[in-house]
Amino acid sequence: MTNLDATRLRTLLGGFSRAKVAILGDIMLDRYLWGAVNRISQEAPVPIVEVERESARFGAAANVAENVASLGARAVLVGIVGDDDAGREVLSLLTGRGVDVDSVVTEPGRSTTTKLRVIARSQQVVRADSEVTSDIEGDVETRILDGLRRAVADSDVLIVSDYGKGVVTRTTIAAAISMARDAGKMICVDPKESHFASYVGVTAITPNEKEAGTAVGVTITDENTLLSVGWKLQKQLGAECVAVTRGEQGMSLFMSDGELVHLPTVAREVFDVTGAGDTVVSVLAVALAVGASMEEAAIIANHAAGLVIREVGTVSVGPAAIERSFKDAGEGERVG
Ligand SMILES: Nc1ncnc2c1ncn2[C@@H]1O[C@H](COP(=O)(O)OP(=O)(O)O)[C@@H](O)[C@H]1O
Ligand SMILES: [Mg+2]
């Protein structure tokens, strides 16, 4: 088990601001309407929510890019939005967080992937999704590949954030892997079940248990199935590390040298697990970019995920918060 002492941790975290990360993936916007229900509509048997406030939050690759920027690293995002209000809003919010969106392509006629949740007294009343999930093609694909080439050339590591909304296709994955390999850059993938066969040759991949199980056709129910799925995937993909994220069980690393590492979660309270997987891949990539070993990077990523979910609402996890969290856990000297 790797030893990550306080000095080493501080050195790695201190380097985060020098990391340059490209992100290819599906951009989403999560919108929320918060209000109260006092009566039922006369038009239909549905509650009327009197809206008190609105909020928005990044989803998928947009959330990954924001996470990378919060860590102090440079984030260059490659993806698509529609020519609509949600698209303009997400781009302006991302720019405000310091994410480089010059390589985000606006596709006329496509709606920006948006999930609108209406919440009354902490209860979700309804969710309305706007999205087009068809694979990108033609001119949009060409522009994405051009943007990807520039982004990869200018980064230490590439993250692929695949939410199955059309940006990550067999073509773009193949191009991403070959560009990263040719340039000697690492590639970290947060996968969707459907594309596993295309991920051969990536540096690290972070499926959750369900995604990993689906990929090899085995449901993970216990230690044995976990091990068989993890090793099968690792061999199939040839990845340096298959990091299976396991919710409240933390994370298990299947390494190319045959080592198996279990990292228990550091979260003691859980308020909101949304986006924990995005945090894992973001921190993993940034840490690798600054020279962390795979295991060191995963330890820090697992810690950051635990930190995100024990806070209420959206939190920016920066290097200082991560360092504090290690200290609070009493893991200054020895971790893991
Ligand atoms: N309920 C939970 N309790 C404690 N830790 C959690 C919980 N859910 C997620 N985590 C932490 O977040 C990481 C990623 O979450 P997970 O739900 O496995 O991924 P994904 O969001 O991709 O499905 C886990 O490896 C773990 O460290
Ligand atoms: Mg995930």
Commentary on this structure:
The protein has one domain (6-28, 59-111, 132-328): Ribokinase (UDP-N-acetylmuramoyl-L-alanine:D-glutamate ligase, 3-Layer(aba) Sandwich). The chain is 37% helix and 26% strand. The model is unreliable at 332-336 (pLDDT under 50). The longest helix has 16 residues, at 138-153. The protein has a 9-stranded mixed sheet, sandwiched between helices. The protein has a 4-stranded mixed sheet with strand order 3-2-6-7. With 336 residues, it is α/β, with parallel strands linked by helices. It has helices spanning 6-15, 60-70, 85-96, 138-153, 170-182, 209-216, 223-237, 276-289, 294-309, 319-328, and strands at residues 20-25, 27-40, 47-59, 74-82, 104-107, 113-120, 123-130, 157-161, 186-190, 204-205, 241-245, 251-255, 260-263. It is built from 10 helices and 13 strands. The protein binds adenosine-5'-diphosphate and magnesium ion. Residues 190, 206, 208, 245, 277 line the site of magnesium ion. Magnesium ion (MG) binds next to loops.
State the distance separating the first and last CA atoms: 7 Å
Question: Shape from CA axes?
Answer: globular
- Show unreliable segments: 332-336
CATH architecture: 3-Layer(aba) Sandwich
Task: State the strand order across the main sheet.
Answer: 5-4-1-8-9-10-11-12-13
| SSE run | HEEEHEHEEEHEHEEHHEEEHHH
How many strands appear in the DSSP assignment? 13
Tell me, what is the CATH class?
Alpha Beta
The number of helical segments is 10
Q: Which cofactors or ions or other ligands sit in this model?
A: adenosine-5'-diphosphate, magnesium ion
User: What oligomeric state do the depicted chains represent?
Assistant: single chain
CATH superfamily: Ribokinase
CATH fold description: UDP-N-acetylmuramoyl-L-alanine:D-glutamate ligase
Strand content bin = 25-35%
